[in-house]
Amino acid sequence: MRLVDTEPGQSRYAALASAMRARIVAGEWPPGSAIPAEQTLAAEHGVALGTMRRALDLLAEQGLLERVHGRGTFVRQGLSGAPMLRFFRFGADEREAPRSRILARDVLAAPAEVARALACGPGEPALRLKRLRSVGGQPALLEEIWLPLPAFQALADGDAAAWGDLLYPLYAERCGVHVHRAVDTIGFGNLGAAQARALQLPAGHPCARVQRQAYDLAGRCVEWRTTRGDAHAFHYTVSIT
Amino acid sequence: MRLVDTEPGQSRYAALASAMRARIVAGEWPPGSAIPAEQTLAAEHGVALGTMRRALDLLAEQGLLERVHGRGTFVRQGLSGAPMLRFFRFGADEREAPRSRILARDVLAAPAEVARALACGPGEPALRLKRLRSVGGQPALLEEIWLPLPAFQALADGDAAAWGDLLYPLYAERCGVHVHRAVDTIGFGNLGAAQARALQLPAGHPCARVQRQAYDLAGRCVEWRTTRGDAHAFHYTVSIT
DNA sequence: AAGTGGTCTAGACCACATC
DNA sequence: ATGTGGTCTAGACCACTTG
């Protein structure tokens, strides 16, 4: 029977949740796989079923686990799509899948801000991508993406044209990196000359700027991205309570 | 003992939650007051304590109730502040409370879009406010606010200069309207000449536009508001999982 | 001390998915 | 049929708040 350190003031189920989180982050059950049944885990930790359920519910709320009635409890896969387009409304048919094209791929010294976020030494080499996303054949979003380098070496080589339209599944397949959480910071700016050209807009045109930092299960920042698109196409809804 | 219709496929606690929601919306316990103890409610409905707790937890998650250990369970007051400024970063000292000034107050026929949202007949009279919010003495946000009219008659009369800096507490005190939920839609645009003048910016300057619809406990739209501020001061962070 | 919500238990039974 | 998660019960005990 596994014992759990119970800090005073910490409830049993919270301690159990931490313990389970540690086992998941350590890779005991890889993303997408099922963890043992509630009964098994409860017995293993010597607690009542309800207490273990409470712990697992907590982790599910936090997005670490996914519970499926009748099938089991699973470690969540990475974020499915890259829902960058949810911030924009372009006239084109929404059902049509957006297309991606890699405009540039270079190994460069990361700027200070990027290096700090990615936790690689300042000036250390990183992989930089420039990417254009199109909707209905029209250029819509321009992205600049920084990836830390030993981890993403697999993307520095090979044919980028064969990558497909979604990056996160690619990260998972080719580099074993699962994006689990992301923080987007929205701001406003103006397009530089080259950026405007890529988006077929006049230079200096107003743009919405979304700066994203993406994290894996262990909380490491694994992607630093800036996305720009026509400010007039920007549209976002927030519900507050 | 109160009985609850249990639709097939609906769990007991969900049905209980609906029943409690109805009693709250009906005003059985006004905002800010405590509801009876869990034990009492459980007995009243003839269910186990755990089941009633589950129902109340659900309503708490939905923001309808607020649970306080040792004191009781309370019907939530309206949204505390009007956190419109969370969308912006102005240079001024953040600790300093923003100030408000009413620029105009008129009873007018509501435009079609507003009338539809407020569920008053198109062209029926409504109260329109124009309001300027300043931070550190500098004009920052310009607001246009529409309120449905029999309900807000108390604000059509009296001295608007004495209103103070927050509107939602005012709605509660003077009109008995509690704002419980709001939906903000963000976009970018350009300032008209008069708007720019009020904000001390050049005409045509880019602005962020936040369109808010606020709802009371019963789900009625009780406020329609558009807020504009310098697009370059706009700044918002979203976490996704 | 009394009343409130929060935690934990042990067990029964139900609903869903799979073989 | 079996195994999974979801619901519900009845009760004990703990932690926090108030008079």
Automatic annotation (TrEMBL), chains A, B:
Q: Which SMART domains match?
A: HTH_GNTR, UTRA
- Keywords assigned: DNA-binding, Transcription, Transcription regulation
Domain HTH gntR-type: where? 10-78
Cite the InterPro entries for this sequence. Answer: Bact_HTH_transcr_reg, Chorismate_lyase_/UTRA_dom_sf, Tscrpt_reg_HTH_GntR, UTRA, WH-like_DNA-bd_sf, WH_DNA-bd_sf
Mind telling me which CDD domains this protein's record contains? WHTH_GntR
Among Gene3D superfamilies, the record links this protein to: Chorismate lyase-like (3.40.1410.10), Winged helix-like DNA-binding domain superfamily/Winged helix DNA-binding domain (1.10.10.10)
Please tell me whether the keyword Transcription regulation is annotated for this protein: yes
Tell me yes or no: is Transcription among this UniProt entry's keywords. Answer: yes
Q: What is this protein called?
A: GntR family transcriptional regulator
What organism is the protein native to? Answer: Leptothrix discophora
